[in-house]
Amino acid sequence: MSGARFELQRAPSGEGRRGEVFSWVGQVDGIGGIQLVYPAEHSDYPAEYCEVAVSGEGFPLITFLGLRYLRRPLLARSELRVDWDPADLSRNVWWPGRRGRALRIHVKGRAYRYTQRGGKCGHELTRDGATVRTRRSSWRLPQTISGTCLGAADALDISVALVLEGVYTRNLSAAGAIVSLPGRFLNRLNDL
Q1: How many CB atoms lie within 10 A of CB 154?
Q2: How confident is the model over 156-179, as pLDDT tens digits?
Q3: Separation CA 102–CA 143 (nearest Å)
Q4: 189 in helix, strand or coil?
Q5: Helix (H) or strand (E) holding 181
Q6: Long-range contacts of range 173-177, CB-CB < 8 Å, 24 or more positions apart?
Q7: Mean per-residue pLDDT of the chain
Q8: How confident is the model at residue 47 (pLDDT cuts 50, 70, 90)?
Q9: What is the per-residue pLDDT for 42?
Q10: Comparing C-alpha atoms, which of 99, 129, 85 is closest to residue 111?
Q11: Is pTM beyond 0.85 here?
């Protein structure tokens, strides 16, 4: 799929059990239609959490569940599932630099690195032999989410990259970590 491009458009908001539901829909040539939704309701979870889901024809169901912050899940205390199989997530919050702060994902025998690229609206998901680059039209509730596939990127790679577009990932950069520090600190007070 090297060089393949895709774009998801914001769809009208709906209502779910947990309030307003945001979604983006699009088509990936050679695979099929795909949809990003949050808050999703694929699993039962406490009110302080939020779930994002990506699904579509030819794509696995990917869900990301994390503490709710600004209507989106945080990376903290989160879980990512591919067709209900859990992924191992890790990152070094203290390491400087884009690569050091990257989210590392191990799922379905693949090792990914997810980084911020070119400002807070751009991201890159890489594994050996494949890269998916995504860009939002704006940081908060974008009208479009576009992507480019490089190398041997497939439906799983695209789905993982897109589900992370619904996650609050501002703290993947050092500047974003400083900006989001007060909110993350206040979230931790709930644990006391």
Answers
A1: 16
A2: 999 999 999 999 887 776 665 566
A3: 26
A4: helix
A5: helix 174-189
A6: 173/98, 173/101, 173/116, 173/120, 174/96, 174/97, 174/101, 176/116, 176/120, 177/93, 177/101
A7: 86
A8: confident
A9: 76
A10: 129
A11: yes
